[in-house]
Every structure is written in structure tokens, then in C-alpha cells.
Amino acid sequence: MDNHSGVGVIDKASAILDALEHGPATLAELVETTHLARPTVHRIAVALEYHHLVGRDPSGAFILGRRFSQLAATVGEDRLVSAAQPVLTVLRDRTGESSQLYRRHGAVRICMAAADRPVGLRDSIPVGTTMTMQAGSAAQILIAWAEPDVMHAALAGARFTAADLAKVRKHGYAESAGERESGVSSVSAPVWGTAGSVIAAVSISGPIERLTPHPAAAHAHAVVEAAQQLSEVLRRSER
After folding, report:
1. Strand 108-115 and strand 130-132: pairing?
2. Contact 114, 210 (CB under 8 A)
3. Domain boundary among 64, 87, 112
4. Each residue's pLDDT tens digit, 93-126
5. In what order do the strands lie in the sheet with 198-207?
6. SS3 (DSSP) at 157
7. Is residue 195 part of a domain?
8. Bridge partners for 100 per DSSP
9. Less Cβ crowding at N or C end of the chain, within 10 Å?
């Protein structure tokens, strides 16, 4: 595939962003991956950082910037997001817990849609929030059916194991308690795309005191049904 548009600085910036899609990278790692000169990589990465297209993690390594999650949050016309909102609202009302839709973007996941519990103690995840792929039931769903290289990379620092993911594939849902955040339980299920791959995860989350350490016992059925409904909406839209 030809990655040259004819506009050199855009092509170089794109190469840097492509490299960061796979996770944090130091300046030296970006130079090695992009095959660009070190001063060039530094100059463009700093410029991208100024516009929030690139950020830094606590160690100082470059990562994708918050602007991407902000842009993702505005994609209201996206078919999946449009179809998800009513499904998430029904799921919230059915379970009494906040519900979310997550999609994987490189080494992170992004909340694409949400319906918060209106009152009381709740787990509120704003649309556009970027979250880890190494903890939480939604991360388990998005990794369980992923390509082997993606799964291997996520498992390297994950709070779940390959055996846990095997159980997720067997049961068709995932649960977590205090995995992503202390005191929070969640249940998630896969949304299947028309190409036969998992394209998103539907979740509910809330305080562990209410959802218990094993929230799937009470709520897996409702979450799975919501995910299946959304999968069917997508299938019908392709006919």
C-alpha cells in the first residue's frame, strides 16, 4: 500500500500516529519504527503534542493524545453509536445501572455511548473517555476474540489471564470486580459486526456493594441480550 500522499509533513505525521496506535513509544522507538530522522520525529511529535494529537504517559513516552477521544465522541452519525443509544437506555432501565458501549482503538478502548443511572451512587463514564485494555470486563470482551498478536500484547500487563479469556469465549460474557477501579463491578458482552468479528462491547457498571463481586449472576442475561440486539440492528442495516 502506498503511504505517500505527496505532502511530506503529513505523511511523516501519519507514520508517527500509526506507530503510536500500537501503544506508548519513546523517541528512539518512534525513530526505529518510522525510519525517520530523530530531529524530524521530535519536531513533528512535539507539534502534534501541541495540538493534543499526541500526549505523554507518566514515564514520558509518547501516546495518542486526548483529541482522538474527543473526536470519537462527536461521531454521532456513526451507525453503531446511533443504534446503541436506545439499547443502552433500555439496558440501564432494566438493570438499574449505568450502561456503556466501548470500542477498541489500538492499545486503548473508548466509551462511544453511555446511559447513566440518573440518581444515587453510580459509575459514570463520559462519552469519549479513553480507558485501559488491560483491566475491566469490557477489555476482556474486546481482547477475547482479538487477533493473536493483539491478545498477546494486552495480556502482557493485564489483570486477567488467557484462561480468563477462554472462559469469556465459552460463556459469551465477562465480569469483573475491582479490576479496573476499586469498588466497581461490571458485566460486558460482545457486539458482533457483519464480518464476523467483535467490534464493540456493551457493559453495565456500578458500585460493588450493589452489583456484588459476581455481577454476572444477576445481570449477564440482560447485558448479553442488549449486545445481541445491537448486533442484529447492525446486521439488518447491511441487508
Report:
1. antiparallel
2. no
3. 64
4. 999 999 999 999 888 999 999 999 988 888 889 9
5. 130-132, 108-115, 98-105, 198-207, 184-192, 174-177
6. coil
7. yes
8. 114, 203
9. N
Would you give the DSSP letter of residue 193? P
Find the mean pLDDT for residues 56-78: 73
- Identify whether the C-beta of residue 229 lies closer than 8 Å to the C-beta of residue 87: yes
Last residue of a domain, one of 49, 64, 79: 64
Strand partners, 103: 110
Beta bridge partners of 177: 185
Domain assignment present for 2:
no
- Report helix, strand or coil for 221: helix
Q: What is the pTM of this model?
A: 0.68
> Amino acid identity of 11?
D
Grid coordinates representing 48 are 502534534
CA distances from 29 to 17, 54, 60, 132, 149 (A): 13, 15, 13, 21, 19
Residue 48's CATH number: 1.10.10.10
123 contacts 207 by C-beta, under 8 angstroms: yes
Pick from 232, 156, 142, 146: nearest CA to 189: 142
Query: Which neighbouring-strand residues pair with 189?
Result: 202
Judge contact between 234 and 195, C-beta under 8 A: no
